[in-house]
Design brief:
By secondary structure, this protein is α+β, with helices and mostly antiparallel strands. 22% of the residues lie in helices and 35% in strands. It folds into three domains: 7-92, 2-Layer Sandwich (TATA-Binding Protein), CATH 3.30.310; 104-216, Beta Barrel (Elongation Factor Tu (Ef-tu), domain 3), CATH 2.40.30.10; 226-326, Rossmann fold, CATH 3.40.50. The strands form four sheets. Strands 2-3-4-5-1-6 form a six-stranded antiparallel β-sheet, with helices on one face. Strands 7-8-13-12-9-14 form a six-stranded antiparallel β-barrel. A five-stranded parallel β-sheet has the order 17-16-15-18-19, with helices on both faces. 35% of the residues are buried.
């Protein structure tokens, strides 16, 4: 597998151990990502990057290849973690000790509005906003506990990200980029009781600093057809996917959403969208196009049931996603 990689890190595990190879193989299986193996060399491929493990006479060499600094940092963090879990320590040729975690961007709150009765929309500004609109739908919003100064995650001496804990532990919900400009991005928060993010958005002042990390979480599925199912928590992601679908999907695109009509916003009147209050029943009843992709998101129990139904229906795992957006 050939990759366009302009960033490289090298590390050494200072004792020969089959545990390193076992750890890499186990991670490739857990993540369901490609793995190649030749005599003495194992390569794992993820995020457009490569982790290459080479056995040497009295050690093992770890080589990381990635197309951009954020991804080389993410891969170094993940590699350090997976080897640490196997009781192994990597001596890296370079660590950005003390730097902000890979992919973390500091932003400022520009405004908070209420575009529909059930959602708040937050606009953030910052020079790195543009990269959050490419290749992945989601990011993590990092919020410190109320009343405490933020302590942002930073890179430790061993290459792993050090996250604040205890009283300084961050709330880290995932959100979808709803819209994006040169130096700003918007995201929507579903309004519900007990949400720390809602409480923050309802009281935050313009100019307040906040951190986001990412992007991550996949992109609009491509292929001959796409069928989407989601509840109100998935509405922002569905809206974003429907924006992208004309350039990604050759055939029919349909979305079944369990949400109030007043919250559909720009999707109101979209012929691709239908409101269905029971998504699992809709999933069972809808005729799915041959060879198309099925995307389902909502409560964890519903996502598990949807996954089971799709497997029993004979849909290949590569042709669907059933994600838990909440418990």
């Amino acid at each position: 597998m050939s990759l366009m990689s302009s960033h490289r890190r090298v590390g050494v595990i200072p004792r020969a151990s089959g545990a390193a190879a076992v750890a890499v193989k186990a991670r490739a299986s857990a993540w369901d990502v490609p793995l190649t193996e030749t005599p003495g060399v194992i390569s794992l491929f993820v995020w457009g990057c490569e982790l290459r493990l080479t056995a040497e006479s009295d050690s093992a060499r770890v080589e990381l290849l990635a197309p951009e600094p954020r991804l080389i940092g993410n891969l170094q963090d993940s590699a350090s973690e997976l080897f640490a879990e196997a009781g192994l320590e990597v001596a890296w040729d370079h660590v950005d000790e003390g730097a902000l975690a890979p992919g973390l961007s500091l932003m400022t709150v520009a405004r908070v509005t209420c575009p529909t009765p059930g959602f708040l929309r937050v606009r953030l500004r910052g020079p790195e906003a543009e990269r959050f609109s490419r290749d992945s739908l989601h990011f993590r919003l990092l919020l410190p506990p109320s009343g405490r100064a933020p302590i942002w995650p930073r890179i430790g001496a061993n290459g792993r990200t050090l996250w604040p804990s205890g009283e300084d532990a961050l709330h880290r919900p995932v959100y979808t980029v709803a819209a994006q400009g040169q130096d700003w991005l918007d995201f929507d928060i579903f309004r519900h009781d007990g949400s720390p993010t809602c409480a923050w958005a309802e009281t935050v002042s313009p100019g307040a600093e906040v951190a986001i990390i990412g992007p991550g979480g996949g992109w609009c599925p491509s292929g001959p057809a796409l069928t989407l199912f989601g509840d109100q928590t998935a509405l922002p992601a569905i809206a974003r996917i429907l924006q992208l679908a004309p350039d990604m999907v050759a055939g029919p695109v349909r979305a079944f959403i369990d949400a109030d009509a007043a919250d559909l916003g720009a999707l109101s009147g979209d012929p691709r969208v239908a409101i269905r209050r029971d998504l699992l029943t809709a999933l069972r009843d809808v005729q799915l196009p041959q060879g198309g992709f099925v995307w389902f998101a909502g409560r964890a129990a519903d996502a598990r049931a949807a996954r089971k139904h799709l497997v029993e229906r004979g849909i290949a795992k590569r042709d669907f996603l059933a994600a838990a957006y909440w418990d």
